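Archive maintenance. Older records in this collection stored only the sequence; we are now back-filling the structure field for every entry so that each record is complete. The fields below show one back-filled record exactly as it appears after the update. Entries are processed alphabetically, and Beta-glucosidase is next in the queue.

ARCHIVE ENTRY
Title: Beta-glucosidase
Organism field: Microbacterium schleiferi
Length field: 494
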Amino acid sequence: MTTDFSTETVATASVPARPFPTNFLFGAATAAYQIEGAAHEDGRRDSIWDAFSRVPGAVINADNGDVACDHYHRYREDVALMRDLGLQTYRFSTSWSRIRPDGGPLNPKGIDFYKRLVDELLDADILPWLTLYHWDLPQALQERGGWAVRDTADLFTEYALDVHDALGDRVKVWTTLNEPWCSSFLSYTAGIHAPGRFSIAEGMLASHHLLLGHGQVVRELRARDESLNLGITLNLTVADPVTDAPADLDAARRIDGQFNRWFLDPIFRGAYPADIVDDIRAVDAAAVAEWEGAVSDADLAVISAPIDSLGVNYYHGELVGGTPPLVSPGGGEAPTDRATASPFPSHDGIFWHDRGLPRTAMNWEIQPSGLTTLLRRVWDEYAQAAGVTLYVTENGAAFDDVRVDENGIPRVHDAARAAFLEDHLAAILDAAESGVDVRGYFYWSLMDNYEWAWGYEKRFGIVRVEYDTQERVVKDSGARYREIIAARTLPESP
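Back-filled structure field:
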């Protein structure tokens, strides 16, 4: 198979108003640790992010999720806000540390919160879209090896079945994992995210055990209820080479392989990409040998259990080459005091270049055309043959928002975010009109929240949160999204 790394250019001619398909869902997304707060209430115990936020220099300002957006206490207000925005669906995650604290038995008070949340959503005619794992592993399990040990996949399955016992009669869409690349390589190899480990072997093992847990949960839930919509969410990118020179093409191949194919291939094809295994072997043969000892054909059969939907998270693409640029564009990692490493085991000789595109406050390039390219590629090479529907489960941008008061009314004029939203919705329509079965969009995020190692420094929401008072203010981008949802049409634009 030959992979086309090129990215198409979006036309700049005047575009008429464009309707969305009747089965297209509009939503927004959040994650438990980033919004809930109540970190020490009703039996919840530490997750790896509670512990990591206490590591000196790991998170800007030593920020933590103890209070965050106080969603645990304000969920009714937040669901009312979703209804006001016209959201059809809401993607949220359940907290393992709240439901099975320390990885132990079920905590009734913890699961009761999600029962109340789901009931509130259904009463508001909003489809609950549940993600079982968004990075908040119980710290007690990390102290036993975390995702680097196989037992964690089995404990994850037990936790998932507890959640289904409580919510399976009302929740019909189940996502196993959010972005396993982040919760393996970014977390166990690069040390950038919790638990902050620096090991190629642990990153590889974590990736496998995460996928094994995914497959086990899919099989168990499928056996319980064939009507469920089951899937996984992956953060994916488009890796473009600077030129057609061999070194540049190889850099793009390695980023694509370590970021995209490492997860897509086992899920859809029952095998890890052999070229990437060989690349990593050249860097750390012992790590690959340890990982190979943990991977079996039986595991891969479980991992490749059929799914119904694939969530695609897209924020930006990559322009890479085999030689350094004259001026480095920089990355989007938080400038913390703690040293970190590359999340890519095979990273020597890979350099990031600048396309000259506008950038967000995360220093990420704004490239809507990359989303069209990505959806087409995933559809053509993976999803279509498997009968899997695509959803864009995260897409959003941080900007340096400023609140103003106009005649006593709080406002946030975030024209750049509104444009980002419209341009990426247009890119999805481009993909759909070319034959891609993509049926929904979830803006990240519903509201400003705890942005992991960035703490509260970056704001992604279409709703502003004043953290000292917990006041919510719908930004101009949120109002624009409401208009688009109500019309189910993108306006005419140049």
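Update note: The chain has one domain: 18-490. The radius of gyration is 21 Å.
Entry marked complete.
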